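batch_manifest entry 22 of 60
target: GNAT family N-acetyltransferase
source organism: Neorhizobium phenanthreniclasticum
requested by: lab member K.T.
priority: normal
notes from requester: please return tokens only, no post-processing; we will run our own comparison against the previous entry in this batch. if the run fails, retry once and flag.
--- input ---
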Amino acid sequence: MVLSDMLLFKDNADPSTRLAIAIHDETDRQLGELQCLDKALASETGLVEDLTDWRNAARTSFLTQFEARPDRTATWLRNVVLAAPDRILFIVRSTGGERIGHIGISNISDEKAEIDNVMRGRRSGERRMMFYSSVALIAWIFGTLRVPVTQLCVLSLNTGAIRLYDRLGFEEVERTPLRRIDEPDMIRYTTQADHGSAAGFDYLRMEISAERFRRLYPWAHAAG
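--- output ---
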């Protein structure tokens, strides 16, 4: 698959032809679906408001921390999510169609893809929904994008997310101290050692190889 395919997926305006990935557990029970955030989905009633609320609820999990607003979220969807050829965002839906959260891929290249924006916004439905959503997406990454490695980055103080990534089979490969920069209406963290003040926590890079993932999740590879 070439990166231009990502733009084609996101340019879709017909819900019936939307890129979607089924979410299954190890018994092959379907739990929901990952739906590509395309032009049609971006205009769905309540979506921008949901993404804004979820972002605010998880504010301390990001390198840039600010009060999200619907207009800012809509601009991010239009100018970043839909416009970038190396990025794609999926909305996590239950089998009943409820929006549960989202999970994305960024920095896609021939060598790797990076999981990002993993967020559960609603606690209804399957308790391990984000675990199985992650398995489904990683299976798709390895089966469709055919990269050898999937990576992610996470703040070291985000222990809940790290537990999830550990369970998925990701391994820490790099740890970098963060520096805090206070700006008007925003706190920003950077790995640049000559900026800001010591944050007191680190930025972790974790990864899983296609070989390791398929060994851990042969059932997901078959479904992906």
